[in-house]
């Protein structure tokens, strides 16, 4: 499957932004606060640094503007490694889509539609995601591009409304639970950045290697800064002890916003916002997974696979018994599977490229 869509830097950055940003509306802020305390605001930045460096290494190894991650792997390590690496990144994107589908559907049930059957909600998510993916890369990237400023405006309104509730002293001590407490969040966010490797699969859609680097910088970096500021506001509002116990951190933040007696309970508006963000994030991950499968098996289009893979997605999403099990699987997936795999695949490519360059230099130096 050869991509015929040409993306600009801003569209590509928006796509990558939505492979990570939806975590903000789940329980991630409370999990990071529980893990590292008042320094939880630093965890998205560390994760972006580690994940961004790994993606930058992959980008630097691209040979030309027409190559992508799978072609690079086949060139350096062979066809078998290309299939193995491709299936790993397919798993990263598809498993993320499954977990987000479960969590967003369950959260919608809890806060907005408690009288509706869970199966009905998850089917609505499925239909919405399938429609977005079916419309193609250009429509999906433009949707992401339009939603980024809207989400920023929404966050700014919430932060402004929470100003009276903030207590800056809650951000002390500056080191939280200590530097060692940052290790688990660092692994979590490194793994959470693995789905952003879809930019390397879509690399031929960009103008050149430099554009891919800019997409990584703005997509990963912008998302990390926004999440870092949100975590700081969250801790400043709820403090560490209370903030560690929240199931829906962002929703609880919006419930505290009070403008006047005529404008209150604005969380209803933000429910719609994070539902849309969730659907778009799931659609981006599913599109990336389908693209990898098509490129691996030389399929001309992913349309015949769209509905079957979507049904598999919601089937897998319903497997966890409850919300706690879903969160445990989510943490294990990012920290124990995706993070090591992301590091190993990138270092393997880097080592193979170095060895290949050395062999070429030795060959050229041989009389």
Verbal overview:
The chain is an all-alpha fold. It is 72% helix and 0% strand. It has helices spanning 9-17, 28-36, 43-61, 69-77, 79-111, 118-134, 137-161, 183-192, 198-201, 209-243, 249-255, 267-296, 303-317, 323-365. It is globular, with a radius of gyration of 21 Å.
> Distance between the terminal alpha carbons, to the nearest Å?
43 Å
Helical content stands at: over 70%
- What's the total count of β strands? 0
The major β-sheet equals: none
Structural class: mainly alpha
Report Rg: 21 Å
Task: Name the overall outline.
Answer: globular
SSE string: HHHHHHHHHHHHHH
**Global mean pLDDT:** 90
DSSP strand content: under 5%
Q: Figure out the total of helices.
A: 14
- Unreliable parts: none
SSE topology sketch:
Layout lengths: L8 H9 L10 H9 L6 H19 L7 H9 L1 H33 L6 H17 L2 H25 L21 H10 L5 H4 L7 H35 L5 H7 L11 H30 L6 H15 L5 H43 L2
Helix pairs in contact: 1-7, 1-10, 2-10, 3-8, 3-10, 3-14, 4-5, 4-14, 5-6, 5-12, 5-13, 5-14, 6-12, 6-13, 7-12, 8-14
What is the gist of this entry?
The chain has 367 residues and is mainly α. The chain has helices at 9-17, 28-36, 43-61, 69-77, 79-111, 118-134, 137-161, 183-192, 198-201, 209-243, 249-255, 267-296, 303-317, 323-365.
List the main descriptive attributes of the protein structure presented here:
about 375 residues; mainly alpha; globular
């Amino acid at each position: 499957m050869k991509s015929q869509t040409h993306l600009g830097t801003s569209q590509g950055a928006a796509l990558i932004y939505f492979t990570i940003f939806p975590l903000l509306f789940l329980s991630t802020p409370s999990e990071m606060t529980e893990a590292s305390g008042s320094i939880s605001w630093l965890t998205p930045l560390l994760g972006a640094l580690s994940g961004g460096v790994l993606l930058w290494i992959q980008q630097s190894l691209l040979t030309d503007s027409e190559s992508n991650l799978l072609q690079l792997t086949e060139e350096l390590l062979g066809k078998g490694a290309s299939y193995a690496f491709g299936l790993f990144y397919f798993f990263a994107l598809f498993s993320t889509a499954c977990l987000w589908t479960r969590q967003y559907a369950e959260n919608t049930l809890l806060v907005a539609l408690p009288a509706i059957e869970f199966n009905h909600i998850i089917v609505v998510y499925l239909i919405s995601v399938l429609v977005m993916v079916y419309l193609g890369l250009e429509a999906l990237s433009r949707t992401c591009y339009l939603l980024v400023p809207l989400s920023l405006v929404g966050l700014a309104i919430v932060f402004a409304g929470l100003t009276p509730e903030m207590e800056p002293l809650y951000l002390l001590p500056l080191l939280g639970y200590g530097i060692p407490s940052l290790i688990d969040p660092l692994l979590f966010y490194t793994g959470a950045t693995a789905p952003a490797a879809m930019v390397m699969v879509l690399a031929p859609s960009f103008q050149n290697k430099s554009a891919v680097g800019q997409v990584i910088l703005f997509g990963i970096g912008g998302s990390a800064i926004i999440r870092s500021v949100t975590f700081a506001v969250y801790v400043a509002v709820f403090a560490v002890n209370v903030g560690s116990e929240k199931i829906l951190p962002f929703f609880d933040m919006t419930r505290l916003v009070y403008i006047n007696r005529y404008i209150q309970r604005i969380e209803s508006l933000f429910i719609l916002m994070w539902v849309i963000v969730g659907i778009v994030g799931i659609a981006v991950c599913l599109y990336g997974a389908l693209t990898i499968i098509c490129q691996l098996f030389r399929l001309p289009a992913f349309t015949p696979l769209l509905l079957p893979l979507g049904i598999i997605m919601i089937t897998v999403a319903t497997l966890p018994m409850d919300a706690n099990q879903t969160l445990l699987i989510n943490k294990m997936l990012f920290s124990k599977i995706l993070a090591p795999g992301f590091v190993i695949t990138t270092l393997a490519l880097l080592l193979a490229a170095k060895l290949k360059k050395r062999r070429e230099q030795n060959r050229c130096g041989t009389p």
